TrEMBL record:
Keywords from the UniProt entry: ATP-binding, DNA replication, DNA-binding, Helicase, Hydrolase, Isomerase, Metal-binding, Nucleotide-binding, Primosome, Zinc
Residues reported in the UniProt entry to bind Zn(2+) 2: C448, C451, C466, C469
Species annotation: Halopseudomonas sabulinigri
Protein name: Replication restart protein PriA
Enzyme Commission code: 5.6.2.4
Binding site for Zn(2+) 1: C439, C442, C479, C482
Ranges of residues in domain Helicase C-terminal: 474-631
Length: 737
C-alpha cells in the first residue's frame, strides 16, 4: 500500500512539518506531494501543503488526526516552482509552511480552487441519480445530485453557492465517481497573429550585440546587462521577449516598483498583442489568483511583477528578466527575508532558461559574479538615439545660506532652465517638511517616544511623524524643557522644498513626488501628464523619482544633499550613494536636449564625489569591489545576521549572548573553518517602536559552512526558554545591517 501519512507544511513560524492521516474519503494512491489539504490545528482548520508522504509517524497513531479534505487533484505547483520553494526555505532557513505562505496567492492559502473562475463546471456522470445508494445518508450530496440533474450542460463553480451547494459535497461526489469537474480553460487561444502590435526599434550596434549573445544561447545562461541610463536596456528586453514568445514560451519580468513606472508597463503592452499580466498592488485577491492561474496555465505570454512575482508559476518558461537588479526592494526585509533577484537566478537555472539582470548601476554582488564567470557581462555604453550623457558638477554650499534646502546659485540655475522652456528635477531624500523640530532657546529636539529617532515635521496637516514606527502626534507649541515658544523646523524635506520653489517660481507648476503625495490617487497620473505635456515645470521628490522613469524634457537634475551617504557607517554606503546619484542623474537629458546634474555638498573635495563625477559608477564599483576583497566583506565573505528584539532592554542581548555561546560550541564541535562571530551589538537604531534591538553577525569564507552553522543553531534557538519573550529572526545575505 502506498504511504498514507501526510507530512504537511502549515503556515506556522516553526521550522517543521506536521503529520496527519489522509482524509477519510481519499485513497492513498490519490495523494501526491504538493497537493493542498485542509487540516484541524488546535481549534482551527488550516490549509497546508503535503510536503512528504510516509508510512510511519513519531506521533502515536491514536493521536494522529486525520486531514479534513484534499483540496487539489494534482500538485498545485509545477515541479520547478515546487523545487524553488523548497530551496528558498532551505537557503533562507525558513519554515516551508511559511515560505509557501509567502509564495502563494492569498486565496490559494485559504483553500480556493486553483482553477480559473469561469473554467470550472460541475457535471453529473452517467449512473448518478438522486436515489443512488452511496448518497442516501449524505443530504448535501443528494441535493447536489438533484441540482446538477437540472443542469445537463454543467453548473459553473461560481454559482454553486447560489444553489445551496458546497464544494465539499461536490468533491465528495467526485471522489465517489458520480460527478466530474470539467477544467478546460477557455482562454487557450492560438498564438495571436501578428505577435507584435508595434514594430521594434532598429537596435543599435551595442543592443544588437547584446541580443545576438542572448539569443545565441539556449538553456540556462545568466547575463548582466550593464547599460548606462537611457541606453535602451528596455528595448533589449522587449526584443528578447519577442523571440521568447515566438518560440512559444512565456517571459517573467521583475521590476522594483509597479505604481511608479507606468511608462515602462505601457511599452510592454503597446509592443505585444500577447496577453500581458501585471501583478500590481491594485488587484483584489480574486484578480491576483486569476492572474496567477493565467500564468501557470500558459495563457499569459508575459508576466510582470515586483519581488513576490518570482513565485509565479509558468507553464512554458522561456526567459526571466530582472530590471534594475541592484534595487533594494528585491530584498524582503521581514518574515521570509528572500532576495528575489537571487531566487530569479536559481529559478532560471531550475527551468533551464536565460536570465537577464539589467542595471545602469549593477550591484557589487552581480559584478563579482561576472568576475567569477557565473554571469556574462553585456555592455551598453552609449545612450540610445541622439541623447548624450549628462554633465556633472558639485556645488560647494559651505557657508552659503540654504532656503528650502536650496542655495542661491542653484535657485538661479533652476530659473534659467525653466525660462528656456525645460523641466527641472530636484531630488531630496527626505519626506516631510523638515527632519527636526528644535527649540531655539534651549536646543531641545522633538524625539520619538518609542524610537531612538527624531520626529519629522509635516505640514498640511501640521504634525510630528516618526518614519520608523509611524507614530504621530500634534506639533508641540511650547518646548517641554524650557517652556519657550520659539520652536523651529530645522533642515528641509520635500514639503519645504516644494513650498520654497512655489514661492520662487509662482508661474511654473511644482510637482511633489514622495510617498505621501503618491498615496493620493491620480497624483501619479497627473504628474505623468504634466511631464509628458513637455511644459516647463519642477519635479521635487525622493528616490521614487530615481526609478526607471523616462523624462525626456528634464534638462537639470539637482541633488540637494549628497553628504548623508558620505558618512554612512554601513560598508555598503558608498555603493548605495553612487547608485542613487547615478540613477537620479540618469533622468537628465534623456532625449534631444543635453542634461546637467548639480550636486550640492559641503564636501566638494570628497574623493568619492570626485570619482563619481569624473569617472562614473563603473570606476567606483571596481574600486569598491577591490576594497571589499581586501577587507573580506561581501561578496567575498558570506553573512547571516541573527536579530533579536524585546521589550526589556537586556533580554535581547542576553538571548544573543547565549546564541553566541551555542554558535561557538557548534563551530568547535563541527570544526567549522573560517567563521567569525561578531557581537552581539545593539542594532543601528537600538530602540524602535518601543522595543530594544540587538544583533549577532555570523560570517564565513564558505557559504556552505555558514549554512551548516545556521542550520545547526536555529533548532537550538527555537527550544530556548526565552524564545517566546524575545522576537528573533535570521537574515541570510542581509543587505541592511
Ligand atoms: P534604459 O532602459 O536603458 O534606461 P530605455 O530603453 O528606456 O533605456 O531607452 C531610452 C530611450 O531611448 C527611450 O526613449 C527609447 O525609446 C529610446 N531608444 C532605445 N533604443 C533605441 C534605438 N535602438 N533607436 C532609437 N531609440 C531608442
Ligand atoms: Zn527649549
Ligand atoms: Zn518612532
Amino acid at each position: 500500500m502506498p504511504p498514507s501519512i501526510l507530512q504537511v507544511a502549515l503556515p506556522s513560524p516553526l521550522r517543521r512539518l506536521f503529520d496527519y492521516q489522509a482524509p477519510a474519503d481519499v485513497a492513498p494512491e490519490q495523494l501526491q506531494i504538493g497537493q493542498r489539504v485542509r487540516v484541524p490545528f488546535g481549534r482551527r482548520a488550516l490549509v497546508g501543503v503535503i510536503a512528504g508522504l510516509s508510512d510511519q509517524s513519531k506521533v502515536p497513531s491514536d493521536k494522529l488526526k486525520a486531514a479534513e479534505a484534499l483540496l487539489d487533484r494534482a500538485p498545485l505547483l509545477p515541479p520547478s516552482l515546487w523545487q524553488l520553494c523548497l530551496w528558498t526555505a532551505r537557503y533562507y532557513q525558513h519554515g516551508l509552511g511559511d515560505t509557501l505562505n509567502v509564495a502563494l496567492p492569498v486565496l490559494l492559502r485559504q483553500g480556493e480552487a486553483a482553477l480559473a473562475r469561469q473554467d470550472r463546471l460541475w457535471q453529473l456522470l452517467p449512473g448518478a441519480y438522486p436515489e443512488h445508494p452511496a448518497i442516501q445518508r449524505a443530504p448535501k450530496q443528494k441535493l447536489a445530485v438533484q441540482t446538477l440533474a437540472q443542469h445537463p450542460h454543467g453548473l459553473s463553480h461560481a454559482l454553486i453557492s447560489q444553489w445551496g451547494l458546497t464544494r465539499d459535497a461536490l468533491e465528495a461526489l467526485e471522489s465517489k465517481g458520480l460527478v466530474e469537474r470539467i477544467e478546460q480553460s477557455p482562454h487557450h487561444i492560438a498564438e495571436p497573429l501578428p505577435l507584435l502590435r508595434q514594430a521594434p526599434l532598429t537596435a543599435n550596434d551595442e543592443q544588437q550585440a547584446a541580443l545576438d549573445a542572448i539569443l545565441g544561447k539556449s538553456g540556462f545562461h545568466a547575463w548582466l546587462l550593464e547599460g548606462v541610463t537611457g541606453s535602451g536596456k528596455t528595448e533589449v528586453y522587449l526584443q528578447a521577449i519577442e523571440q521568447c514568445l515566438r518560440s512559444g514560451h512565456q517571459a517573467l519580468v521583475l521590476i522594483p516598483e509597479i505604481g511608479l513606472t507606468p511608462q515602462t508597463l505601457a511599452r510592454f503592452q503597446q509592443r505585444f498583442s500577447a496577453p500581458v499580466v501585471i501583478l500590481h498592488s491594485g488587484l483584489n485577491d480574486r484578480e491576483r489568483l486569476d492572474a496567477w492561474i493565467a500564468a501557470r496555465d500558459g495563457d499569459a505570454g508575459i508576466v510582470i511583477g515586483t519581488r513576490s512575482a518570482i513565485f509565479t508559476p509558468l507553464a512554458r518558461p522561456g526567459l526571466i528578466i530582472v530590471d534594475e537588479e541592484h534595487d533594494l526592494s528585491y530584498k524582503q526585509q521581514e518574515g521570509l527575508r528572500y532576495n528575489a533577484r537571487d531566487l530569479a537566478v536559481y529559478r532560471a537555472h531550475l527551468e533551464k532558461v536565460a536570465i537577464i539582470l539589467g542595471s545602469a548601476t549593477a550591484s557589487l554582488e552581480s559584478l563579482h559574479n561576472v568576475e567569477q564567470g557565473r554571469y556574462q557581462l553585456l555592455r551598453l555604453t552609449q545612450r540610445a538615439g541622439n541623447a548624450k550623457p549628462p554633465s556633472f558638477q558639485c556645488l560647494d554650499i559651505r557657508s552659503r545660506p540654504l532656503e528650502g534646502g536650496l542655495s542661491r546659485p542653484l535657485t538661479l540655475l533652476i530659473g534659467e532652465h525653466l525660462s528656456k522652456g525645460n523641466q527641472v528635477l530636484v531630488f531630496i531624500n527626505r519626506r516631510g517638511f523638515a527632519p527636526t523640530l528644535m527649540c531655539h532657546d534651549c536646543g531641545w529636539i522633538a524625539e520619538c517616544k518609542r524610537c531612538d529617532a527624531r520626529m519629522t515635521v509635516h505640514q498640511s496637516p501640521a504634525h510630528l511623524h516618526c518614519h520608523h514606527c509611524n507614530s504621530q502626534r500634534p506639533m508641540d507649541k511650547h518646548c517641554p524643557k524650557c517652556q519657550g515658544s520659539d520652536l523651529r523646523p530645522l533642515g528641509a524635506g520635500t514639503e519645504r522644498t516644494e513650498e520654497h520653489l512655489n514661492a520662487c517660481f509662482p508661474d511654473f507648476p511644482v510637482l511633489r513626488i514622495d510617498r505621501e503625495s503618491m498615496s493620493r490617487k491620480k497624483a501619479m497620473q497627473q504628474m505623468m501628464e504634466t511631464i509628458q505635456s513637455a511644459q516647463p515645470c519642477i519635479l521635487v521628490g525622493t528616490q521614487m523619482l530615481a526609478k526607471g522613469h523616462h523624462f525626456p524634457d528634464v534638462t537639470l537634475v539637482a541633488i540637494l544633499d549628497a553628504d548623508g551617504g558620505l558618512f554612512s557607517a554601513d560598508f555598503r554606503g558608498p555603493e548605495r550613494m553612487a547608485q542613487m546619484i547615478t540613477q537620479v542623474a540618469g533622468r537628465a537629458g534623456r532625449a534631444e536636449k543635453p542634461g546637467q546634474v548639480i550636486i550640492q555638498t559641503h564636501m566638494a573635495e570628497h574623493p568619492l564625489l570626485i570619482e563619481l563625477t569624473e569617472q562614473g559608477y563603473p570606476a567606483i564599483a571596481k574600486r569598491e569591489l577591490a576594497e571589499r576583497a581586501v577587507a573580506q566583506l561581501p561578496p567575498y565573505r558570506f553573512m547571516a545576521l541573527l536579530r533579536a528584539e524585546a521589550n526589556n532592554g537586556r533580554a535581547a542581548n542576553q538571548f544573543l549572548e547565549e546564541a553566541l555561546q551555542q554558535a561557538e560550541l557548534l563551530v568547535e564541535q563541527h570544526q567549522l573553518a573560517e567563521v567569525d562571530l561578531l557581537g552581539p551589538v545593539p542594532s543601528p537604531m537600538e530602540r524602535r517602536a518601543g522595543r530594544f534591538r540587538a544583533q549577532l553577525l555570523m560570517q564565513a569564507a564558505q557559504r556552505s559552512t555558514l549554512h551548516q552553522l545556521v542550520h545547526l543553531l536555529l533548532p537550538l534557538l527555537e527550544q530556548h526558554p526565552d524564545a517566546r519573550k524575545v522576537r528573533w529572526s535570521i537574515d541570510i545575505d542581509p543587505l541592511d545591517m
